[in-house]
Amino acid sequence: MKTPNIGISKENRQSIANQLSKILADEFVLYSKTLNFHWNIEGTDFHSVHLYLETLYEEQQEIVDTVAEKIRMLGHYVPATLKDYSKLTHLTEQTKGGNDSQSIFAELLEDHESIIVFIREEIEPIAEKWKAQGISDYITGLMEQHEKTAWMLRSHLK
């Protein structure tokens, strides 16, 4: 692939790709976990929660794809194996148990909030240190998506 000439140095593109790879790993683990919960939900609210979880994992699938595309736009290959993701993620793929909606929502909330914190810490370095304001804007939007989902999950737990 021809080297991107997008006003971001090679070193900065590498640094950004490294951080985006961590975000991608988190997003993929969250996608997988949400899909697991969708398949295994039990309880009197099964139907509505099953449908809500389907919405969440479809949103996660879209996020995974767009983060991967950002890495490719920087001229780097995307980590795409479970082994890669397990090394890069801040999350765990292991669930804590409970297939009821309250257990599931609590666990998903914890993961979304963990991603929010990580992304928030990356916004400024990507914009200022590595001179990639567009990617900084992108991950800010990503963080806002997670904030909305976290709010909805939190509301279920009240």
Q: Could you please describe the fold and organization of this structure?
A:
- It is a single chain.
- By secondary structure, this protein is mainly alpha-helical.
- The protein has helices spanning 10-40, 46-73, 82-88, 101-129, 133-156.
- Helix 1 (10-40) packs across helix 3 (82-88) and helix 4 (101-129) packs antiparallel against helix 5 (133-156).
- It starts with 9 loop residues before the first helix and ends with a helix.
Summarize the structure.
This protein is mainly α. The chain has five helices and no strands. It is elongated.
List the helices and strands and how they pair.
Elements: H1 10-40, H2 46-73, H3 82-88, H4 101-129, H5 133-156
Helix pairs in contact: 1-2, 1-3, 1-4, 4-5
